[in-house]
Specification:
This protein is α+β, with helices and mostly antiparallel strands. It has twelve helices and six strands.
Length: 237
Amino acid sequence: MMAENSTMEVDDGADATVSMADVQNQAAMQARENQGVLAPQFPPMKESSAERLGEKKDEFRRIKVPQNRLTPLRENWENILKPVVIHLKLLIRMNTKTKSIEMKNGPDTEDPNALQKASDFIGCFLMGFAIQDAIALLRIEDLYVDTFLVTDVKMLHGDHLSRAIGRVAGQDGKTKYAIENSTRTRIVMADTKVHILGSYANIKLAKNAICALILGSPPGKVYNRMRTVSSRMNERH
């Protein structure tokens, strides 16, 4: 191998030491291949100065408040401040000019994901969920919110769209409550948007039931299916 590499032509004026280094690198690569070591060899990463000194980068978030959620936000402002300021140790304020909530890391913030958790919590409340349900996002790790449009399931317009939304809600919200109780989720319908709060598996069950109603399945058939799902979930737990 070394004999073959030594016969490589070197251009006039080229640095001989560079050519020898290339030959040595090629020989080392060939040796690793012969030994079955195909993974590249990278030097260790060096910590940045901020990470080495333990400095925290100042982050800032701004969440726009919809017009229809201004009054509920005003009524529940104290309940929102407690988990954000006391538990997550963030700085928060309401900007009345831009009608948005502004948050940033404080000097006592310890959790690097605190800002994201607070954003998810407030965003969940602004979607229309109750404050107790939104706080569950901070306490339980495997909860998240899934959002989709009724028109994503089936292209409907006018009265057909209104009837599809009515089938999902049911009379006095009975169908929606039945799906929530059977799948252990929380559902908010905002015009043509459907927000579902829960674990991944439970959201999938609730979404299947809602999609069936949108596609035209009678509520009685969906009730029977939800009753079966509920009994199976009770057996598991």
